[in-house]
Amino acid sequence: MKSIAALHKVVTPWSDGLEPSDAELDAIEQELPLILAEVDLLDVEIAVLDRAPAELDERRIRRARRRVLIERRTLINQAAAANMPGGAA
């Protein structure tokens, strides 16, 4: 049996620059509540894919959607407050 090996050079050589910067990690940390809310909404939606949603499922979906909207609003408000001169909101 022939062995299969890469005959070409690696397209992206490994370098130390592949790790996220501190600024990128800070941005991810700031957006983490929104990311988690979106994951929760996705989990709820996946749970009802193969069946008709019951009343409890509909409540869970509404609650998850509200949480996503709240987290988006909070993130937008924080960004707007950071861009205002003098830090006033």
Explain the overall architecture.
The protein is mostly helical and 89 residues long. The chain is built from two helices and no strands. Helix 1 runs antiparallel to helix 2. The termini are far apart.
Highlighted features:
mainly alpha; 89 residues
Give me the secondary-structure topology.
Layout: H1 22-47, H2 55-83
Helix pairs in contact: 1-2
Structural class of the helix and strand makeup? Answer: mainly alpha
**Shape category:** flat
Residue runs with pLDDT of under 50 for 5 or more positions = none
What's the β-strand tally? Answer: 0
Q: What is the percent of helical residues? A: 55-70%
Helices and strands, in order, run as HH
The main β sheet shows up as: none
The rounded distance between the terminal residues' Cα atoms is 69 Å
Continuous helix count: 2
DSSP strand content: under 5%
Mean pLDDT: 86
Short description:
The chain is mostly helical. It contains 2 helices and no strands.
